[in-house]
Amino acid sequence: MSEPSIFFSEVNERQGVFHRRTFLLGGFTGLGLLALGGRLAQLQLVEAQRYQKLSAGNQFNYRLAPPPRGMILDRNGVSLASNRPNFRLMITKDKGLDAEAVMDDLAKLVPIDGTRRARVLKDLARAPRKAPVVVMEDLSWEEFSRINIREPELPNVTADMGEVRVYPFGGAFAHVIGYVAKASDRDLKAAEGDPGQDQALLHNPGFRIGKQGVEKAFDRDLRGKAGATKAEVDAQGRVVRLDPAGDIAATAGKEIRLTLDADIQNRALEVMGEESGAIVMVDCQTGDLLCMASAPSFDANRLVKGLSGAEYRALAEYERKPLLDKTMTGVYPPGSTFKPTVALAALSAGVDPTERVVCTGGWYFGGRTWHCHKKGGHGVQNMHDAIKNSCDVYFYQMALRIGPDPIHSTATALGFGQAFDLGIPGQRKGLVGSRDWKKKAFKRDPVWHPGDSVPYGIGQGYINVNALQLAVMCARLANGKRALNPRLVKAIGDVDQPHGDAVADLPFPQEHIEIVRAGMAAVANDPTGGAYKQSQLGLGDVLMAGKTGTAQVRQYSQTGSRSNQGVPWRLKDHNLFIAFAPYDNPRYAMSVLVEHGGMFGSSAAAPRAREVMRVALLKDPEIRARIEKPMPLPSLEPGDTEASEAPTPTDGVPAVG
User: Fold this and answer.
1) Reported confidence tier of residue 447, pLDDT bands at 50, 70, 90
2) The Penicillin-binding protein transpeptidase domain covers which part of the protein (predicted)?
């Protein structure tokens, strides 16, 4: 029997296959272990902090905290816009929220009317998930406590304390400071492409943005930088407890200091009463604006909370336009307050100030009679008398003689027809007519006719100005040298803003300015002046210079009466007055405009200017010291009775000390 044969080639082949498979499987196993070890190392060593943060994020949540808005102060540090605590009730939109049921529950705890309910439900429908929607603001302490006690029973309801903007003086500064309100859809859309905007902050229910005036113009400076509050939450995202140690503090907005004076501004609004108009005061030495009051005004605090449609319509449709800033946006014919400008233009054109014009109450030119405001006329008038008496006939003839261009040039140099860099929007330049202007404005009749110059000389026709420009014109005349620019913002944070006196000199000889100023002094201090009785300050030797103005808003008939009795308010004349004081060393200049006042500027505007000017003068330490300085005792001539000796009674009655 033969032995079985062993084929070593087969054995070797099987061993080789086994070894290859073992090596291959071992390699895969090794690679897997290596990858698993590398991933574990990456998770535990490299990305440990990241996952710790994610883990903490599941446990803790940061809620955006709007920053305190920067304060707005007057020149003396008086608060014009600040912040106060505000108890708010909010609903956070979430999946499965039954908004109708929540509102029903809340209505049992706090007063929620149908209008508010509809508005909240609409806001919840539009809000993104997890976004809080404000139900009520300015909760009372009782309402706030009631909600907090029952908060565990109310899903997605929170009551917290935020801040709300407050304006201590209500409407006194409403036009110049403006107000804040919740960002509208238009605001949010405009901010979408702006990398400098904090989108999360804009959507926060407690955040407000500036809507007008200083609040709007310096909104970025006033906003500050948002912070966050740290809170521990459960798996559903509900707050378990707060962690104040982890809060991120917000940075308050910058403080803005204005040049305005709260006392002067409040007095200005007070003296305007129910009239419509504006009062502007400028420091003649620096150009600082001390007063920019527009009347009637509105309470800015009401707009912060939000007006109903009916309330807003009532403001918008009222004929005296409380929403219009009449200091900068409203433009009016200046009337006779423009005559000092025309007089200065005539002097620059070579007119002799001693030249006389006879005023008989009217002047026939161009096929019609141009009337003077005084029936029977003023008689013989030189420039000084014409300014003092506000003689229309004199200025009709001067304007016709020199033409519109010298008047335009002088008016522009005094501040008319331009917008000043106050930092806030809303200014209208008005209109100062010239030959070039008419060529561009009237294509069918581009020629400046002689008849256009006649009313131009008394501040009517192709001339419209605002109250700010009138005050600047008066301040430049009072200063006599510098073409002062008005300044409203004194400082932003710790940075002072440019002064208004860093400007070029006026292009007029000093003697010409003195002639015009002397005429204005006679208006207020000569017993025959147009505003003598209404311009007496009663402050010793501190005197005021001024100029009255009455601007027509309708065409008078040639023979009809110019009385405003029985005329609708919107058709009555405007009343104006410009003034500066003290006359011998001017410090303050101002303009007063009473819209459709129906009386002469001396009757309606001048008394208001006097009262506001008194406040400014009495607040000035140097001027007050001058007013309170005792009068010198009269000197005694030789032979007079000694001051220490009492006269001897001659009638048997003892002298009374």
Assistant:
1) very high
2) 277-613
